[in-house]
Design the sequence.
């Protein structure tokens, strides 16, 4: 599983381009981000709620690489941060282009969530 590239509005993973936010599971399966889980609480998908964190997390995940958008706008809510910490899952949050490179270099049991716009 490799993130090939990203630009505003898209991300290419293993040669396939997606035009929406994506979640990469431990298995390598790619899913569309369920940003409505955060948007209904905060009115924006730029703050990850605890409910979305529960959807993103997979048992056994040691690292979440969070691509915070091309302009670095996405943040974890305090509750989401606490949720990941309690699960023993480190979170590395970076602008999506940097997060893609971090995801590719990361070892171990990692998952990735990438916001592809702002």
Sequence:
């Amino acid at each position: 599983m490799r993130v090939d590239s990203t630009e505003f509005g898209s991300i290419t993973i293993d040669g396939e381009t997606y035009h929406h936010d994506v979640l990469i599971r431990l298995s390598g399966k790619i899913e569309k981000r369920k940003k409505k889980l955060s948007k209904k609480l905060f009115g924006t998908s730029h703050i990850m709620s605890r409910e979305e964190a529960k959807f993103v997390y997979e048992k056994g995940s040691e690292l979440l690489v969070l691509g915070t958008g091309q302009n670095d706008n996405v943040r974890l809510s305090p509750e989401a941060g606490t949720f990941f910490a309690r699960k023993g899952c480190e979170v590395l949050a970076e602008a999506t282009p940097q997060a893609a490179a971090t995801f590719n270099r990361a070892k171990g049991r990692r998952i990735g969530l990438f916001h592809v716009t702002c």
The beta strands are 3-7, 10-13, 16-18, 22-24, 30-32, 47-48, 63-67, 75-76, 90-94, 110-114. The CA atoms of residues 7 and 116 lie 7 Å apart. The chain has one domain: 3-114.
